[in-house]
């Protein structure tokens, strides 16, 4: 080999070695722990226990909304009115909706209290619910959703051959129907494709009652506030550091030892990008999450788990998590 060729070969090896040293290690990347969502599902159940026996049901409340109840009679002898029936009664002649007293057949009604029925036009005292059926409609949801109706209880429908179901429609689309278990029965009906925005309608083929209407919607899970690393590193803001965290704590007392020998406040003041930038925003997120005066989505445990899940890791992982923490930290700071 000529001297010139040897020099070229040596230079090539040096370039390759240098590139190998500068590259990030190859291997499985750590799996990042996802940050918590600021949106959570909240659910409430519509019951009729605020109504007395035989009281008209014209309005309801859920999620702070005032809902309107409109009842449309089916066949005679139904009336255009929903009323409350007390399943705890021991004397009402409609024994199919009572769980105790002479002749009671709805043993499964125990614990339900008042339920909603369509009034029999011949009089509540002597007849209770009507076997003519009808529709109980609920409106007032518009502009506050979307919602989902998860389930409801259907009581005392006729069994085969009548098979008089209670069917639920959400925004005009059928989402559930009872199976008609017979007199004195209680059936929990689970719904499907149940998202709605405006209205619910329970269609009664005959006699029966409804109760425990379970409705859910997504709500903000707090958050919206955060203070920056620049805020937390200032000595005159050390009084905002909440227990158990102190500026002189070593970073490694709370996280994986990414900054050997450095305290939390030193990491906050550490310049540079990549891991250093992640360190600054991680400490700020930790302090935001620990301070009860800051409405912050993450808990200290979630912040710690998120950092530890990417360290040691790649620059891309550090940048991704730093950006997530920065988005939370760089908002309205409510502290002094």
User: What is the average of the pLDDT values?
Assistant: 88
Which series of helices and strands comes N to C?
HEEEEEHEEEEEEEEHHHHH
Enumerate the spans where pLDDT stays under 50 for 5 or more consecutive residues: 1-28
Assembly form of the protein: single chain
Rg (CA only): 32 Å
Strand order of the largest sheet: 2-3-6-12-8-9
Distance between the termini: 74 Å
Structural class: alpha+beta
Tell me the fraction of residues in β-strands, as a range. Answer: 25-35%
Number of strands: 13
How many separate domains? 2
Shape assignment: elongated
CATH architecture of the largest domain: Sandwich
State the helix count.
7
Q: Largest sheet, if any?
A: 6 strands, antiparallel
Description:
The chain has 336 residues and is of the alpha+beta class. The chain folds into 2 domains: 41-220, Jelly Rolls (Sandwich), CATH 2.60.120; 223-329, no CATH class. It is 23% helix and 28% strand. It is built from 7 helices and 13 strands. The protein has helices at residues 3-22, 124-127, 229-232, 264-268, 274-290, 300-310, 315-329, and strands at 39-46, 59-62, 65-73, 78-86, 114-120, 134-139, 147-157, 166-170, 173-177, 182-190, 195-196, 199-204, 209-220. The strands form 3 sheets. A 6-stranded antiparallel sheet has the order 2-3-6-12-8-9, with no helix packed on it. Strands 1, 7, 10, 11 and 13 form a 5-stranded antiparallel sheet that branches. A hairpin with a 2-residue loop joins strand 2 (59-62) and strand 3 (65-73). Helix 5 (274-290) packs antiparallel against helix 6 and helix 5 runs parallel beside helix 7. The longest helix has 20 residues, at 3-22. It starts with a helix and ends in a 7-residue tail after the last helix.
